[in-house]
Amino acid sequence: MKPIEFLEHYRNNIKFYLPMIDHERKYWPKVTEQLGDINIGWDCGSLGRRPYFLECWSGNHVTMITFYISTIGIEDYTVEDIEKLLIGSGLYSKKDGYKKPGVVTINDSNNNEFFSVNIVVGVEDEEAVIDGAIIYPYSQLNEINGYKDIKASNKDQYVLSEKEIEEVLDPKNLSASDKKLVESWEKEGLTRRRMAELLIYEM
Question: How far apart are CA 103 and CA 91, in angstroms?
């Protein structure tokens, strides 16, 4: 089940599931203006009755994914237990250079407690150190939540790395309309950096 389908199912059957973090209802700009972080994409689903919400983002030339899962029933889980749960459920797999995730507990606006599991995907232009995580563009989530895109205003404050450019232009992270734009820009001879900047800061 794709994340949009699961999200609709979750919202229609919310009493069956443990809580999902309220990030699933927020607006996702392409750039977080206060920090300059690039919001790459998202995913969601469930581990039995336990929903997860995944965010992929990049800042300071480091690409990360963050999983959020409810602590209910697993309050005493260690980092190793959480890692085993996520990997054992097929949400990602390790590659050479992988580092143990950082895990903290947070509360959302509904006062539900979650594990925030932060995993380094890659640094600068180095090869990714995890595999298997599936990322979808935030435009889909914004659309289902009824939000319109807002232009970022800090385009001169951050220089994209080559890895971030490739992530922004990865067809898996593009909406149908963005794919058409990229195709037209390629015909016009725009550089990949300029295309990525246009997608993040102007569209």
Answer: 16
Q: Which residues contact 5 (CB under 8 A, 6 or more apart)?
A: none
The Cα–Cα gap between 28 and 54 comes to 13
Residue 68 has pLDDT above 90, yes or no: yes
The single residue listed with the structure tokens 């203006």 is: 33
**Does the pLDDT value for residue 62 go beyond 80?**
yes
CB atoms within 10 A of CB 34: 7
Q: Quote the tokens at residue 108.
A: 């959302």
8 A C-beta contact, residue 185 and residue 153: no
Angle at 34 between CA 29 and CA 38, to 5 degrees: 45
* pLDDT over 90 (residue 1): no
Given a cut of 90, whether residue 74 has pLDDT beyond it is yes
Exposed e or buried b for every residue in 72-106, given b needs 16+ CB within 10 A?
eeeeebeeeebbebbeeeebbeeeeebeebebeee
Which candidate, 195, 165, 160, places its Cα nearest to that of 36?
160
